[in-house]
Amino acid sequence: MKVLRRKEGPSLDSRLAALLEAAKLGEGRVSEPAVAGARAVAERAGVRRELSIDHTVAALAGATGSGKSSLYNALAGQDLADVGVTRPTTSTAQAALWDGEGAGPLLDWLDIPRRHSAADDPGLSGLVLLDLPDHDSIRLSHRLEVDRLVEQVDLLVWVVDPQKYADAALHERYLRPLAGHRDVMVVVLNQVDRLPADAVDRCLDDLRRLLDDDGLPGIPVLAVSARTGRGLDELRALLGERVSKRKSWSARLAADITAAAEHLAAAGPAQPVDGDRSPQAVDGGTSGGGKRLGGAERALTGALCAAAGVPAVVEAVAKGHRHRAVVATGWPVTRWVRRFRPDPLRRLRLGGLSPAGRAVRSAGGRADRGADREIVGRTSVPAASAVQRAQVETAVRDVGEVAAAGMPGAWAAAVRQAARSRAPELADAVDRAVATTSAVGTRRPRWWRAVNVVQWAVFAAMLAGALWLGVLFGMDYLRLPQPPLPTVGVVPWPTVLLVGGVLAGVLIALLARLAAWAGGRRRARRTGRALRASIGRVGEELVLEPVEAELDTYARFKEAVDQARAHA
Known about the structure:
Elements: H1 12-26, H2 32-50, E1 56-62, H3 68-76, E2 94-97, H4 104-110, E3 114-117, E4 127-131, H5 140-150, E5 155-160, H6 168-175, E6 185-189, H7 197-213, E7 221-223, H8 232-245, H9 248-266, H10 294-307, H11 310-329, H12 335-338, H13 344-347, H14 355-362, H15 386-404, H16 409-421, H17 426-437, H18 446-477, E8 487-488, E9 491-492, H19 493-564
Parallel strand pairs: 1-4, 1-5, 2-3, 5-6, 6-7
Antiparallel strand pairs: 2-4, 8-9
Helix pairs in contact: 1-2, 1-9, 1-19, 2-9, 9-19, 10-15, 10-19, 11-14, 11-19, 15-16, 15-19, 16-19, 17-19, 18-19
């Protein structure tokens, strides 16, 4: 027969490690008290585990006149605490020990100087019972002592009386906030000897109702009289059972870890941010990284492209391509005139080494110093207008809003801040991307060199024809005998070379210009795509990556919180 085993939850060690990891990830993002509280719990848990785990520290806590000290004496079997009726008599906590050997370091950590050996009771061996000051004392030092020890003891025994069991101070300040600690709490209704039998049952029923409202259903509630001894055996048996299991200390630490994790999960932002939504629990948030930001990402890229003057750069690429094509492939007789016209890309300080200088060099000429100088610093692309800057800011904000949708307030604020964290760097980074990417638009096609060679060959033929004709005219002018003149049909070769060179050079220049116009359009389209991709990478690096990193941090935080508050 197959035996089904109960699946065990994470160990106390792993939950402690997860709590510390969540506190580390939440630092600077969620409120400092929540982070500090989680670290304090982890530190307290580490210390408690190193001390005696064979002893269980139980504390009697109650209001003035609840009979807490009387109950303490009755359980200890001797008068150890002074008993008062209407005023507080316990100023500092004291301890009664059953088989207290080895409990010294534990009591030192709890800072309990007054220690007593209780009457022998094998059933309570290992119990350390504390009598605390009154939690409603008029003295602040008493209340602070109670608050300190309530956070440290293994088992809490709340002592109430028929007159003040519904006291709001007890329920609102202690019981309700400690609802997650019901496994390590007991409520004792003391002084029941003052009530008729039927009134005791009514008080117990009403007390259980109040505890249910506090989030403590099922918590043990005992009717006790320290004066008559009623219910003391049941209380001793319950304490003996808790002590014998030696698990109250770990149950208390587990409850503290869960409470600290819950506090982290519901904590607000570390610093209030205007416009942020109110904090929500982590359970209501998104699962973390991997959000689809497609629409917001495209809008961001579009806004950055508009602000970077991409349309103007693309137009300049097309015009610059045609300008350099004319310089490189135009008719040598007239191409030099083009050098006096500014290169559109050069005017925008784009393309690195001056495109005009490169074109002149490729044509076999010598570029001047201004044309051959490396361009440094920002480009001269027209600055973004106020409207374009506002569009970029809106797009960045929209990325943060889309990424933060559905997240708790603290982490939504962190994601929005991450989206804006590197926004001041966008202008320079986009400008560099434009300057670098637009260099693609200055590359010379290979056919320019071939056409340039043909043009110079045709130009050389034209010069040869012109010189030939000049020599003939000179000889005729000097009445020298004419040399034989070859012809093409009836046209002399010198004329063919001169006229043919002119016509061929002009025709080649016109065809090259048409090809450059078509090539400029293609190059402009390619440059536009390259610019959009390059600027998109800038937006991804400076806006999207910080957001994704924050989403990943939140996912790890949520995982750590879930592990920390998981019950074994």
